[in-house]
């Protein structure tokens, strides 16, 4: 099992002499930059001249430069532009990484699949909150933490781990707990999870459930509530207390029906094939090629998703009903 680190294992003063460049000010970028800044760490934000986020960052009291200038000014450079953009941004800033500097990521794709190949004399590591950026920021402001991952890919200075833990503490992750992992494990589990379970698996199950009911003549509104809306209630119970809390909260009929029928909808071989495609690099190659071609298939899939009946029905129902202020 992987080690887990908390606040008492980390010391922000290990990066008090460092300047951290945050490249990008999107979901993760704004959260890292603001949390580091408020933790007393010296931060500069790297954004291209045309970026519409420049003002937002400056309004928060952050210093904004171009990515190249930010990397030149910094000892630690955190890549928080979209993964597909990182190789080209890296090519711009590569020469600004001096021996002993640290290159950081919040996801391992580009290192693991060889899209970014750092020089031998820089430290390379990952500090990855396991949550969208707005929650990383919101939790920090509330004095709470966001669970995170730490991975060391290259440690030339012997200081990578203590600096990584210091960074993780400064963005609030060690308040919740930071699990140590590797670039390979993070990248492969992340891609598998989002494809097979979280994003791909769940949407496909909801869609096909909805279609099965509608095709059998049931009303789309009933199908929507049953297959999509109630999913959140079930997932909240699982999140709070695991499967048993969920099973204990639903009726015995739901529990028996679920336990005996659930397996029927899952294609275990399909899951194994997805994992294989992640492990052997086939998915990565496909996605890199797709981006080089300006994303023709991506656009098609996205259009089909947007035009699916469940989107129209859901939009209408979400306007008609109020489901409470806690909906995010
Ligand atoms: P975003 O899509 O939110 O990043 C957008 C930022 O990148 C903007 O500031 C944008 O600035 C900048 N940017 C885009 N293109 C360029 C470019 N060509 N040159 C310079 N800057 C550019 O990214 P995320 O925060 O979602 O992801 C960042 C990293 O964090 C990724 O590695 C991701 O895998 C990882 N991660 C993301 C999580 C999430 O929930 N979002 C969770 C955990 C990890 P501009 O205004 O110039 O376009
Ligand atoms: Mg430098
Ligand atoms: Mg250093």
TrEMBL record:
It is an enzyme of class 1 (oxidoreductase). GO terms for biological process: isoleucine biosynthetic process; L-valine biosynthetic process. NADP(+) binds at residues 25-28, 48, 51, 53, 133. NCBIfam families: ilvC (TIGR00465), PRK05479.1 (NF004017), PRK13403.1 (NF009940). Involved in the biosynthesis of branched-chain amino acids (BCAA). Catalyzes an alkyl-migration followed by a ketol-acid reduction of (S)-2-acetolactate (S2AL) to yield (R)-2,3-dihydroxy-isovalerate. In the isomerase reaction, S2AL is rearranged via a Mg-dependent methyl migration to produce 3-hydroxy-3-methyl-2-ketobutyrate (HMKB). In the reductase reaction, this 2-ketoacid undergoes a metal-dependent reduction by NADPH to yield (R)-2,3-dihydroxy-isovalerate. HAMAP family: IlvC (MF_00435). This is Ketol-acid reductoisomerase (NADP(+)).
